[in-house]
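I would like you to help me understand the sequence and structure tokens below and explain how sequence relates to structure.
___
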Amino acid sequence: METLTTANAVIFFLLASLHVYWAIGGSNGMDVTVPTDSNGRKLFRPGRGITLLVTLGLLAFGLCNTAFAGWLQPGLAPSSFRYAILLIAVIFLLRAIGDFRYIGMAKRYRQSRFARWDTLLYTPLCLFLAASHSWLYFI
């Protein structure tokens, strides 16, 4: 259990750091992080505020894993973190399944650079996070 919560927390803290980098103006890797339509147009343009909001969510997920492992004592009932772990599993399972158009396993449009990265990295990472959090919840 400790290895799994550590891996999850490290992943979330690294992803949060990457989002901070993008929020402060970094652009490396940004061209493959937003899905595009069949004409190559980005489906949305995440602003600084949304990027920071995602950062906070990722930090919260990392902290949930550290609290679930017992490394953090925030004064909440342990069952709170157990349900948070389940919620994280559901969120990443839904992301892995996708929107049936541009993201996830069920995407139809697969020709963009984002789609290739989604198939090779983003969706498998989401599946790992869904599976690892499910495992933590059910053990």
